[in-house]
Amino acid sequence: MEKPQDIEEELLPEEEYIDTEADDEDESSQLYEHYRILADKKQKMMRVDKFLIVHLSGISRNRIQKAADAGFIMANDKPVKRSYKVKPGDVIKIMLDRPHYDNEITPEDIPIEIVYEDEDLIVVNKQAGLVVHPGFGNWHGTLLNAIAWHLRDNPDFDINNPEIGLVHRIDKDTSGLLVIAKTASAKTNLGLQFFNKTTKREYNALVWGNIEEEEGRIEGNIARNPKDRMQMAVFPSNSEIGKHAVTHYYIMERLGYVTLVRCVLETGRTHQIRVHMKHIGHTLFNDERYGGSQILRGTQFSKYKQFVENCFKICPRQALHARTLGFVHPRTGEEMMFSSELPEDMTALIKKWENYISNRDVYTD
User: Fold this and answer.
1) Among positive and negative, which fits the CA dihedral 74, 78, 79, 80?
2) What angle do CA 353, 355, 359 make, to 5 degrees?
3) Number of domains in the chain
4) In this structure, are 186 and 211 located in the same domain?
5) How many other C-beta atoms can be found within 10 angstroms of the C-beta atom of residue 12?
6) pLDDT 10s digits, 235-276
7) Is residue 5 assigned to a domain?
8) Is the residue at 104 inside a domain?
9) pLDDT at 190
10) Do residues 78 and 179 both lie within one domain?
11) Are residues 126 and 243 located together in one domain of the fold?
């Protein structure tokens, strides 16, 4: 029986954890069957978590209990709690919200920038365009395939072991820092730091519009947009819809019709910065999914339109970079802080807008 790694992956706290790879999957509200077990006629009454441990190899009781708590375990097509007693003839299923896949993560020689590495963890400065984790439509060519290649000679590292690996995720077209655990204890420790909101995460983003305030706080629950399953949306903080999310932003540079901001995450939800900034009327520049690849501010002059189109070509993705990552080392207790410079596409984009400010008349005649 294949290793049931999907359960662990689906139950990772959203980064996400910041910006999980929902950005790269065509998700819907449909659930997909991953495992199906028929209790035979001689089956004795047994808790469903114990029942699944007996029938699924390589999976812990804790992980199964988390799956039950998330509503992913069904008995006769109805979600059940971990304490449910399996009876003869019961059909027990594990259902997840993405299609099942059989692919194991295999080593692939993909260039990645490793900022730091020791026996417990790796910090990577991910390039834009690189999917973090294999998923629907992206089974190969991911960051984890690259990590598998990098550690191919390490006999103690198995990229397919769900107890190690990714601690958090960022979108395919977001660049910047993220940490990968090389041991189970490191992943558990780091995961708790993200869950308890003690990590430090700062992003740089170029957004549409001139933000009036020098700094601000955005609070609002984040959940799947009921009108567009490919988007997230913001709901009232006192709503039962979605997960609580808070983003702090600070103005770095005003560039006419766009603003460079520093975003500090208090929580980490799917597309948090992207959807929060859109919520306050300042969509990320060239964020196609949220409408930022259209001209949202500026003039109707043809020269200006051409200027913006050229900007889109310079940075052909949402202008978002995970610049700072801080955490406590899981083994030594040392405060670790990493920072990465803006990538070339965002640097060139900002410089082009700076030139626009100093030569505004060229674009408005």
Assistant:
1) negative
2) 115
3) 3
4) no
5) 20
6) 999 888 899 999 999 999 999 999 999 999 999 898 999 999
7) no
8) no
9) 95
10) no
11) no
pLDDT of 32 reads 73
Decide if 179 is inside a domain. yes
Give domain status of residue 286, yes or no. Answer: yes
Long-range contact set of residues 226-230: C-beta below 8 Å, sequence gap at least 24:
229/26, 229/27, 229/28, 229/29, 230/26, 230/27, 230/289
Overall residue count recorded for the chain in this entry = 365
Could you tell me how far CA 10 lies from the centroid of its own chain? 12
User: Is the Cα dihedral 265, 270, 274, 275 positive or negative?
Assistant: negative
- Which of 125, 160, 195 marks a domain boundary? 195
341 and 232, same structural domain? yes
Mean pLDDT of all residues in 335-340 = 97
User: Catalytic residues, which ones?
Assistant: 171
pLDDT, tens digit, 9 for 90 and up, residues 177-229: 999 999 999 999 999 999 899 999 999 999 999 999 999 999 999 998 888 87
* Matching residue, tokens 């395919």: 172
pLDDT for 17: 32
CA distance linking residue 286 with residue 305, whole number of Å: 14
**Domain CATH code at residue 79:** 3.10.290.10
Q: Using the predicted structure, report yes or no on whether residue 341 has a pLDDT greater than 70.
A: yes
Q: Is there a contact between 139 and 98 (Cβ–Cβ < 8 Å)?
A: no
pTM score: 0.74
Structural domain boundaries enclosing 40: 31-96
> What is the percent of the chain where pLDDT is above 90?
63
**Residue 354 and residue 239 share a domain:** yes
285 and 230 in a common domain? yes
Q: Find all residues with CB under 8 Å of 212, minimum gap 6, and list them.
A: none
Mean residue pLDDT across the chain: 86
User: Which of these three, 195, 213, 247, is where a domain ends?
Assistant: 195
Least confident of 31-35, 227-231, 305-309: 31-35
Burial of 187 (0-12, 13-18, 19+ CB in 10 A): buried
DSSP-derived 3-state class of residue 74: strand
Whole-angstrom distance, CA of residue 174 vs CA of residue 255: 21
Of the candidates 91, 71, 93, the one whose C-alpha atom is nearest the C-alpha of residue 81 is 71
